[in-house]
Amino acid sequence: MNADQAILRLLKQHPIAEQADLLKLLEKEGLVLTQSTLSRNFRRLSVVKLDGRYQYVEAQRQAPPAFSVDTAPPNILLVRVGPGLASAFALKLDQSDIEGLVGTVAGDDTIIVVVKPPERLKDIQREVEAFITRHA
Questions:
Q1: pLDDT at position 9, please?
Q2: Overall pTM surpassing 0.85 (yes/no)
Q3: What is the pLDDT, as a whole number, of residue 63?
Q4: CA angle 102, 106, 107 (to 5 degrees)
Q5: Is 116 helix (H, G, I), strand (E, B) or coil?
Q6: What is the crossing angle of helices 86-95 and 121-135, to 10°?
Q7: Which residues contact 84 (CB under 8 A, 6 or more apart)?
Q8: Which pLDDT tens digits describe the chain residue by residue (136 residues)?
Q9: What CATH number is attached to the domain comprising 100?
């Protein structure tokens, strides 16, 4: 059994309030770790101290950020993303190979996308939506 498995098993079996207590239990099983190694293992394994004892906390998966893409004819798209995400998405859009996307201007949660020629506005809207979905 490796150290990670032993740590998780012992945390289930014992209410461990101090890392030193867990280190002693691990040593009884032939696994000698330093306190700093144990702390690194805790971070990697998502072990935190809750209610006075160390526990495994399953990492929650975050949903991809919601977004919307609206047209502002004749040649502007208005993209709304989550707070603080506009600059990152604008940079990715600028670096993309979407033909007809001239450039972007980003705020905190809004991106203005300039399209040329204006006749491609709806096509580029669909491409931008697909691009953001892939990169979210």
A1: 95
A2: no
A3: 61
A4: 160
A5: coil
A6: 120
A7: 108, 109
A8: 699 999 999 999 999 999 999 999 999 999 999 999 999 999 888 888 888 899 988 765 556 668 999 999 999 999 999 888 899 999 999 999 999 999 999 998 999 999 999 999 999 999 999 999 888 7
A9: 3.30.1360.40
Q: Which one of 12, 35, 56 terminates a domain?
A: 56
Residue 124 and residue 76 share a domain: yes
44 and 90 in a single domain? The answer is no
Q: How many other C-beta atoms can be found within 10 angstroms of the C-beta atom of residue 128?
A: 23
CA angle at 19 for the pair 13 and 21, rounded to the nearest 5°: 60
Structure token digits, residue 6: 């032993």
Residue 82, domain extent: 68-135
Residue 48 main-chain phi, psi, to 5 deg: -135, 165
Whether residue 42 contacts residue 11, with contact meaning beta carbons closer than 8 Å, is answered with: no
Co-location of 73 and 20 in the same domain: no
Q: Identify the CATH number of the domain in which residue 38 sits.
A: 1.10.10.10
Q: Is residue 63 part of a domain?
A: no
